Please model this.
Amino acid sequence: MKDISSIERSKDVVYGLGVNRESVYYSILFGAASITALVLLIISYAQKNTALKIYAWILLPIFLVCTVIAARYAFASKNKIYAQCGVLVIKSFFITRKFKIASIEKISAATNNKSGVTTVNVFYDKRTYNYKLKSMTKEEIAHLRRVTSRY
Model:
């Protein structure tokens, strides 16, 4: 059986922001709103109030989807780029890509000084994957190159 704590300790985080406080706040807020909409739905069935039923049935899925989106954003913002067991992992909101470090052809990273946006290009299996990150420092870029050239 895998020891999950040792895997977490073996992570070599290159670029990570930690958990975004605003997204945690919004996931809690929308979660509470979802519970409130569910309570309104139960009350509307007990009171036989058709208008409240329609209102609660419209609000409940909206708040549930917003809760999931905020929670996903919180998860995607934590440890965006890390290396683990010979694999480079880059997380974004929609997809998490894993690249075998031995198969990476080239990595380039450049920061635009005016906007502070860093563009990371990963050349892997004759394809180029392009990522835009906010305010990646020179030390983090150097660490990314060190981690990917290690294997």
User: Anything to note?
Assistant: DSSP finds four helices and seven strands in the chain. The mean pLDDT is 82.
